[in-house]
Amino acid sequence: MSWTTKQKKKSQAWLREHIHDPYVQRAQKEGWRSRAVFKLKEIDEKDKLLKPGMTVVDLGAAPGSWCQYAIKRIQPGGRLIALDLLDFAPIPGVEFIQGDFRDEAVFERLKSALAGRPVDLVLSDMAPNLTGIAATDSAQVLALAELTLEFARQNLKPGGDLLVKVFQGAGFMEFRKALQAAFGHLATRKPAASRDRSAELYLLARKKRAIDIQ
Predict the structure, then answer these.
(1) Residue-range domain boundaries for the chain
(2) 29 a catalytic residue
(3) How much is the pLDDT for 64?
(4) 140-180 tens-digit pLDDT
(5) Residue 75 CB neighbour total at 10 angstroms
(6) What distance in Å separates the CA atoms of residue 85 and residue 2, rounded to the nearest whole number?
(7) Whole-angstrom distance, CA of residue 184 vs CA of residue 209
(8) The dihedral of CA 53, 120, 40, 79: what is its sign?
(9) CATH class assigned to 34-208
(10) Range 86-92 contact pairs with CB under 8 angstroms and sequence separation of 24 or more
(11) What distances in angstroms separate CA 130 from CA 35, 99, 102, 142, one per listed residue?
(12) Active-site choice (165, 177, 207, 208)
């Protein structure tokens, strides 16, 4: 069997699974842009992340389902700034910046948009285009998570929270230690909407320290 045929069969199997996925069907029925919303919703309901009046930054926001959910939860008085390499249709109340978070200029645009306003919560569901090679994918996701932590260190207010997607693999434990140095509490979350075969986990870091402990 050729590589092309294998890829075609793999794509067809994914499409069949996607169409029959109960979370996909529920998202369509309820008007959410993707099934990913149920990951954030479950974590928020368990951990009480989102509250009225918060300033929230959503990294890797496209297609926008996390924004749809979060913007409702932080009103009245909340502010949500979203960033993604891909564009998406506007969502009322959401400020969107298009660009690659790994680009220093885009990183600075995001900081400028905040205009010095401290952030209460950073959300990151960022992931690169996955190769299917576990070691490569894990390293790329971890690199984005490390950038997210650096942004949080610079912009998250003391006592603020960070929810970031990671894959288990090389460097995972070191990243956990970095989070523990920067935050007072760290928990691991694997929402029901995360597919069983997926290596993704969400690390929830709470109560950012004023100064990292070494």
Answers:
(1) 1-31, 34-208
(2) no
(3) 97
(4) 888 899 999 999 999 999 999 999 999 887 789 999 999 99
(5) 14
(6) 33
(7) 6
(8) positive
(9) alpha beta
(10) 86/62, 87/62, 88/33, 88/61, 88/62, 88/63, 88/64, 89/64, 91/64, 91/67
(11) 18, 19, 16, 13
(12) 165
